[in-house]
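Hi V.,

You were right to ask for the full record rather than a summary. Here it is.
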Amino acid sequence: MRIALAGAGAFGEKHLDGIRQIDGAEVVSLVGRRLEPTQAVAAKYGIGHATTDLADSLARDDVDAVILCTPTQMHAEQAIQCLAAGKHVQVEIPLADSLADAEAVLAKQQETGLVAMVGHTRRFNPSHQYLNDRIVAGQLSVQQMDVQTYFFRRKNMNAKGEPRSWTDHLLWHHAAHTVDLFAYQAGPIVQANAVQGPLHPELGIAMDMSIQLKAESGAICTLSLSFNNDGPLGTFFRYICDNGTWIARYDDLVTGKEEPIDLSGVAVSTNGIELQDREFIAAIREGREPNASVAQVLPCYRVLHGLEAQLQP
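Predicted structure:
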């Protein structure tokens, strides 16, 4: 499986590290915004081709599939570009920052029949997989999820502390993780409400947000998001179930009493990004729909669209 990766930034390198662990998978082309830094990352990972133009990679005969780790605002257009070129595509979360763009990607996927997947990593983190296995087996059901997504990001910086060329968004990016995960674990969402704090005077985005969700099953979710939090960073999920309570922190899981859960047997890796990439490659090889396909995650973007309408002044 020969892959082109677009977006040689902080998250792009996470995918490069993950793909290194997958037999028969190789990144053969790397796309970045500026050539010199892109060439440096390509040299670090032994990638033979580096460019600043995605079209250069798509024109190559030795590229089977593309992983997009580019700015949010480019995701939908580039995903459609990849599919039009006959390449399977995995788009990092979010698929788009509007429902119309997300639906356009789905339409193109259905037209081409190619694999199109979105990086909803929480579906693949062993912590959430462990609980999903038990939910599917009928051993427990979610009653409530309490989720905190917290950063301290008052300037336009990425996860490596480097300046970003684009602006992140609490709703269309960070809330997408939890909205999709809640539906994945508790069932279709039938009610959603949101409020947000003041907009940042320079970035033009809300720095704080609160979202409430209700599933068809009756389960509820409360999600708090902030770019203002000067404390522990990341996303923390408390699952309150009919048969136990758990707290998931990325790839780690503890009980409600902070007792560690052994996740070593859940999957072939404890790295959610690697597992996500394994699913993408396996779906292509097996000619099947992947978990977190564009079709599967589109309901999440319908919910985000409705929430955005509530938040409009």
